[in-house]
Specification:
Layout: E1 26-29, H1 32-35, H2 38-41, E2 50-54, H3 62-65, H4 73-84, E3 91-94, H5 96-104, H6 110-120, H7 128-138, H8 142-157, H9 159-169, H10 191-202, H11 205-223, H12 233-246, H13 251-259, H14 262-270, E4 279-281, E5 298-300, H15 303-312, H16 329-350, H17 357-364, H18 374-396
């Protein structure tokens, strides 16, 4: 969203709302996509306007249909740099989301971080005292916003000090992991331990043991390859993507994540008080199809939070005869994918060799492409199934058939059927 802000010593000087063409003094691009838009850049004049850009890539509608979409951040920055004029010190950038997440544990204050950085550069002609008073009068997360403003100032005035501060926080507020490390080391949990802990909370210890058993079988087989399997690349792929398939984001999991205390703590950290909560969801037993035939979200009141707490307690029903949510097409396909992946790993281990290792790794990584929800996820499953068949033929040295035509999501049928049988 593009907003226009005018600042003047007296109210009578504020005689219009919008900023005229090439009349902006400052462009504060909290979102690069908006900052590099034609409407925003129309207000920029080379040699006059200063741009402060947030380099964090914020999701757009394109990510809903294509999880691999790219914002082309470098191109967006190049457009802004061209607008202010080459060779001019009129474009600066920080990653406000990263600063807020690392030092405050949440990205919500990122826009205030940007404001603090902009003020520190002398681009906001309002006194520090007036800005702090405005934060207080707003009455929302006052101390958090003051901290965010200070961090933005520090990002401009002393970036090295900001990095040191982030490092000091790493032992407390922020945990740093080597995400490629399989085993626990130097007090840091490895990939397997983290996934086991998550799957235990997701379902139970038996579910986590099922995960570990398959991963360790892969590890033993890959280690037997000698030098070729030294990096345990296949094991790491299976450890990551088998867990991804096992942790289906179903109704029980949504309920657990909302009610495990973290969501409520985040609300209390951001808002001192609120009258009520409302949830926009599309429960399969309640939501009705919209004009496009897909489930339409409905607004649910504060009672939903209590209902979610109750639902989270019934995760033991997941996948069983009493699991009403598990009867939908999407849930059946997700459970089938788990079984198929386990069978795939068995098949790979039976024919694994140093020469076939690279193809085996590509097969093990295929679940990376199964993202999204509802019709988006089902369409991605169709695409992955086609790649699965092709790579498996290559693994076994069979003749590869002509590539299967995949219908673009925008032209796909309203419901994707028979995915599990592909």
């Amino acid at each position: 969203m593009l907003s226009f802000v005018r600042v003047a010593p007296t109210q009578d000087l504020l005689n219009q709302v919008r900023i005229d063409t090439q009349q902006a003094d400052v462009l504060l691009a909290c979102d690069m996509v908006v900052g590099a838009s034609a409407d925003a850049l129309a207000t920029v004049k080379a040699g006059r306007t200063v741009i402060l850009a947030n380099t964090h890539e914020l999701p757009t509608a394109a990510f809903v249909r294509n999880p691999d979409a790219s914002l082309q951040a470098d191109s967006l920055l190049a457009k802004m740099r061209h607008a202010v004029g080459e060779g001019q010190d009129l474009l600066a950038s920080i990653d406000a989301q990263d600063i807020a997440q690392r030092l405050m544990g949440d990205t919500m204050p990122s826009n205030i971080v940007m404001l603090g950085a902009c003020w520190q550069r002398g681009l906001v002609p309002v006194s520090f005292e007036a800005l702090m008073r405005a934060i207080e009068l707003n009455g929302v997360a006052v101390e958090n916003n003051k901290t965010a403003f200070a961090l933005g100032r520090l990002a401009i005035a002393a970036p090295e000090a900001l990095r040191r501060l982030a490092g000091e926080q790493s032992g407390a507020a922020v945990q740093w992991f080597n995400f490629d490390q399989l085993d626990d080391k130097d007090g840091q949990p490895g990939l397997i331990s983290r996934r086991k802990a998550f799957l235990t909370e997701y379902q139970d210890a038996a579910y986590a043991s099922r995960y570990e058993a398959l991963v360790q079988r892969v590890r033993a087989a890959e280690a037997a390859l000698g030098e070729a399997g030294k990096g345990l690349r296949l094991t790491k792929a299976v450890a990551r993507y088998y867990a991804k398939l096992l942790a289906i984001k179903d109704e029980y999991e949504v309920a657990r994540l909302y009610t495990d205390g973290k969501f409520e703590a985040a609300l209390k950290a951001q808002f001192e008080d609120w009258d009520h909560l409302s949830f926009h969801m599309a429960p399969p037993l309640i939501a009705k199809p919209g004009a496009d035939g897909r489930a339409k979200k409905v607004e649910l009141g504060s009672w939903t939070f209590k209902a979610l707490k109750t639902l989270a307690k019934f995760k033991g029903l997941r996948g069983g005869a009493l699991d009403l949510f598990g009867r939908t097409e999407e849930r059946r396909i997700e459970r089938q994918l788990i079984r198929d992946y386990e069978a795939l790993v068995d098949e790979l281990l039976a024919g694994l060799s140093a020469e076939k290792l690279d193809i085996a790794i590509k097969l093990a990584r295929l679940p990376e492409g199964i993202r999204g929800y509802g019709h988006v996820k089902l369409a991605n499953v169709v695409t992955v199934r086609a790649q699965w068949k092709d790579l498996l033929d290559r693994f076994h040295g069979r003749a590869v058939e002509a590539p299967i035509a995949v219908v673009p999501l925008a032209k796909a049928p309203e419901r994707v059927r028979g995915v599990a049988e592909l």
